[in-house]
Write a structure and sequence with these properties.
It is built from four helices and eleven strands. The protein has about 180 residues and is of the alpha+beta class. The protein has a single domain, classed as 3-Layer(aba) Sandwich (Protein Transport Mog1p, Chain A). A hairpin with a 2-residue loop joins strand 7 and strand 8. The N terminus is likely disordered.
Length: about 180
């Protein structure tokens, strides 16, 4: 899981953005432009946890990460400055480039799907894959979209053996995401 999430962070990272969590389980990111409701029991990972788990390939942690009590199921947010807005066709091209980068850097990579989908009226590039290597056997669902001034990414991840029970919970959280233009 560490290699997979670190690579997602490599492609889409900005350590200067802020996140906050309220007592209701709602998360606010990028100065309130992005919000999402976390699954019950998920808590924010510490800077040390994020650096240890995701910073190995890039040297930089993600924008924010939240995990279940056991730290198995994880939701990771990354953001990188965007020079100009992407159209849906450009988002599809971006997915192809990201896929090529993943294939070069991740050992034991297995693709399940990559596509452009719509969630809450917004286009998202989706990359669904597994990584099996010396560190982990993890399933990932990474979603990317353009927001004003940035490319924003959400990665949902869990060990392969926990994916069937984790995926519905992670997906419900992702579908709660709201982005203010």
């Amino acid at each position: 899981m560490r290699h997979t999430l670190a690579l997602a962070a490599l492609l889409l990272i900005s350590p200067l953005c802020r996140s906050s969590e309220t007592t209701s389980g709602a998360v606010s990111l990028l100065d309130g432009r992005v919000s999402m409701t976390l699954p019950a029991g998920f808590t924010q990972m510490t800077p040390e946890e994020m650096s240890s788990r995701f910073g190995r390939a890039t040297g930089k942690p993600p924008l924010a990460a939240y995990a279940d009590k056991q730290r198995h199921a994880v939701i990771v947010f990354t953001s990188s400055p965007g020079k100009k807005p992407y159209t849906d066709s450009q988002l599809a091209e971006f997915l192809k480039l990201a896929r090529q980068a993943f294939e070069k850097r991740l050992e034991g990579l297995s693709w399940h799907k990559d596509e452009v989908i719509s969630v809450n009226g917004r286009s998202w590039g989706r990359m669904h894959y597994s990584v099996k290597n010396r560190d982990t056997d993890a399933r990932n669902d990474t979603y990317m979209t353009q927001i004003p001034g940035a490319m924003f990414s959400v990665n949902l991840s869990a060990p392969v053996d926990r994916w069937p029970s984790s995926q519905p919970v992670l997906m419900a959280a992702f579908k709660s995401i709201r982005i203010k233009e």
